[in-house]
Amino acid sequence: MKQCSVCSKPAVYHVTALKEGNVSELHFCEQHFHDYMSKPDSSSPEEGLAEAFFPESNIEDELSEEDEVRCPNCGISYREFREAGRFGCPHDYVVFRDRLLPLLENIHNDTEHRGKFPKRAPLDSKNQYRLIQLRKELTAAVETENYEQAASLRDQIQSIESDLEQANE
Question: Is 77 helix (H, G, I), strand (E, B) or coil?
Fold first, then answer.
């Protein structure tokens, strides 16, 4: 579910604007949609949004910022990704991470897989996924100097690793 372009409430109104061949989408909650619609017409919906809710912002500056950061590997910009809907290489996930996390959270309401696993998925893949999670938690526990939790996580990791080794023999 999309979030309002102004606040974090769920969007119930979706406005698509065409200007000089460029398509832009605005998403509004009930309150901000009525605020947006009650504003006098401006030359474009983006300018109306900027004037109404971000009087000091400049939409053109924000759009040009999307072109500034480029992947050093394939050269794609964030704007090109948004227009095409596809990345140019796997390294783009690292380069645009800060912009992707809010996008993923907006689309999926989370940034990590929280769903089911296939019933036929081997036990190894579930254990590998669990190992990845535990290692991340272990790193975080060590960084925060929570050594009791780190020791517990280390033991869980060793247990899963020994189970995997026994299964592979």
Answer: strand
**pTM listed for this prediction:** 0.40
Q: Is 96 exposed, middle or buried (0-12, 13-18, 19+ CB in 10 A)?
A: buried
Dihedral angle sign, alpha carbons of residues 84, 88, 93, 94: negative
Show Cβ contacts of residue 141 under 8 Å, excluding neighbours closer than 6 positions.
147, 149, 150, 153
d(CA 134, CA 152): 10
Question: Average pLDDT of 30-48?
Answer: 66
Residues 126-150 as b/e (b if ≥16 CB within 10 A, e otherwise) read eeeeeeeebeebbeebeeeeeeeeb
Backbone torsions φ then ψ of 3, nearest 5 degrees: -105, 155
